[in-house]
Amino acid sequence: MNQFKPFHLAFPIRDIEETRQFYGELLGCDIGRSTDKWIDFNFFGHQLSAHVRPEELSMAKANEVDGKNVPVRHFGAILPWEEWHHLAEKLTENGINFIIEPYIRFKGEVGEQATMFFLDPSGNALEFKSFQDESQIFAK
């Protein structure tokens, strides 16, 4: 794979404190700069900027992928295999209501991956995935 290059994503939220707790405490993201209107997180090496803009939040539309309704607008991270499983256990223990429960997608096929979907407190859809074979990330 290519050398890691972090990305930046800004997205709307409804409340700074619930977002700080969710991303900072539950997901374990380090917190960067913040004001009463926005907060930055180190999201697995990437910079997320959560901005208080509740009027920009909307219900996620979905497309079918592998027999599941996948939210079209979502973001997340690709984690190492063991880290993904640890996060899935932690989220389950903390009562996260999954949109798509943790499972193996495309089992035995090109692009086989572990995946799970859930919402943050503002309704933003997140996907976390993992590949045992990283060469499958962009496989056709």
TrEMBL record:
Organism: Shivajiella indica
Annotated VOC domain residues: 5-131
Gene3D superfamilies in UniProt: 2,3-Dihydroxybiphenyl 1,2-Dioxygenase, domain 1
CDD domains associated with the record: VOC_like
InterPro entries documented for this protein: Glyas_Bleomycin-R_OHBP_Dase, Glyas_Fos-R_dOase_dom, VOC_core
Classification via Pfam families: Glyoxalase
Protein name from the UniProt record: VOC family protein
